[in-house]
Amino acid sequence: HLPLDGITDREFWDEWASDWRFGTPVYYGPHLQRFPERSLAVLDAIAHARPGGVLFHCMGGRDRTGMITMLVLALLGVAPEVIADDYELSATDPAVAAAVAAAGTSARAELLRTLAELDLAPFEDLRPALRARLFGDHP
Questions:
Q1: Cα angle vertex 22, ends 134, 24, to 5°?
Q2: Using CB atoms within 10 A of its CB, is residue 99 exposed (0-12), middle (13-18) or buried (19+)?
Q3: How far apart are CA 27 and CA 20, in angstroms?
Q4: In whole angstroms, what is the distance from residue 60 CA to residue 87 CA?
Q5: Residue 133: pLDDT over 60
Q6: How far apart are CA 75 and CA 41, in angstroms?
Q7: Structural Rg of the chain based on CA atoms
Q8: pLDDT per residue as tens digits for the range 103-123
Q9: Which of 99, 89, 113, 92 has the alpha carbon at shortest distance from 29?
Q10: What is the pLDDT of residue 48?
Q11: The whole model's pTM is what?
């Protein structure tokens, strides 16, 4: 059990959880900048899990799950457009789509922007272990 939120950081959450942006790709970049160690802990747990399946989830399956999925796919070299396509398959909450659209953007555009600005350096050491875990590659 590895929560990503870090709810004790009131400065961050007073801004990001106070409106429609929470649960959308709009907050992925700021979250990764503020709490890289939280995502790193989740990726490390996935990469070094015992044999068998690995389950990661959040309440809605699109925000924190989407952020971790985005990181795993990016670390494995999946193209940003393919990651955005994958996100769109599960991001079907009409309220989220309407809120993001009302702000003058789209969840896809925000996800692609986040991927374009994403610094994977803090997570790079996990790339070989993730590949081994997910594909049986030997690092």
A1: 55
A2: middle
A3: 10
A4: 13
A5: yes
A6: 15
A7: 15
A8: 777 778 888 888 999 889 888
A9: 113
A10: 87
A11: 0.82
Handedness of CA 37, 48, 113, 17 (dihedral sign): negative
Q: Are 97 and 107 in contact (CB under 8 A)?
A: yes
**pLDDT single digits (tens) 63-92:** 788 889 999 999 999 999 999 888 877 766
3-state secondary structure 63-104: CHHHHHHHHHHHHCCCCHHHHHHHHHHHCCCHHHHHHHHHCC
The position carrying tokens 């790339």 is 127
DSSP code per residue over 108-120: HHHHHHHHHH---
d(CA 54, CA 45): 9
Q: What span, in angstroms and rounded, lies between the C-alpha atoms of 139 and 137?
A: 6
Amino acid occupying residue 98: A
